[in-house]
């Protein structure tokens, strides 16, 4: 009896893990896009943050052992500047460059809204909900922006949309007269 209960419990747990993805969120709608760099972005940010924390804890020890505290003011300024760049500037720059990278994008057909999942500054997932009419395409191609959702810049890779019509609808291309396939055929 006991062994049967354990195996049946494992079977239920295995079934639930295999059938439901950790990315299923019915409240957001259907998954229309999944960024392929999500784990890399998270890994790079985590590495950057951890080295910054390590630098902060090691700085007093290095100053004490190297005797840099008694050197000239110029040497101290150069040392603190170098440590400051790696400790603070690198993670802030990484966050600014990657904050709009869309990990997953969901679409709710009935209300025409999208939910973009991105990473915030503390590496937690953040949901941004916007309507298709809130999507603005930048006039000039920008390196880390595919479109703006209200005022927030978002970065997606158009080739990673399993259904190209989902990308066309997101960008509003399906509403433009010069993109209607019926007119092209005539």
Description:
This protein is 46% helix and 17% strand. The protein is an alpha+beta fold and 186 residues long. It has one domain (28-175). The strands form two sheets. The chain has a four-stranded antiparallel beta sheet, with helices on one face. Strands 5-6-7 form a three-stranded antiparallel beta sheet, with no helix packed on it. A hairpin with a 4-residue loop joins β2 and β3. The N and C termini lie far apart (71 Å). Mean pLDDT is 79; it is low at 1-20 and 182-186.
Write the layout of secondary structure elements.
Blueprint: H1 2-19, E1 30-34, H2 38-66, H3 73-98, E2 104-108, E3 113-119, E4 125-131, E5 135-136, E6 147-149, E7 152-154, H4 164-171, H5 181-185
Antiparallel strand pairs: 1-2, 2-3, 3-4, 5-6, 6-7
Helix pairs in contact: 2-3
First-residue to last-residue Cα separation: 71 Å
How do the SSEs run, as a string of H and E?
HEHHEEEEEEHH
- State which percent range the strand residues make up: 15-25%
Q: Uncertain segments of ≥5 residues (pLDDT<50)?
A: 1-20, 182-186
- Mean pLDDT across all amino acids: 79
Q: What would you call the structural class?
A: alpha+beta
Sum up the overall morphology in one term.
elongated
Total beta-strand segments: 7
Estimated radius of gyration: 24 Å
Strand order of the largest sheet: 1-2-3-4
Please outline what is shown here:
This protein is α+β, with helices and mostly antiparallel strands and 186 residues long. 46% of the residues lie in helices and 17% in strands.
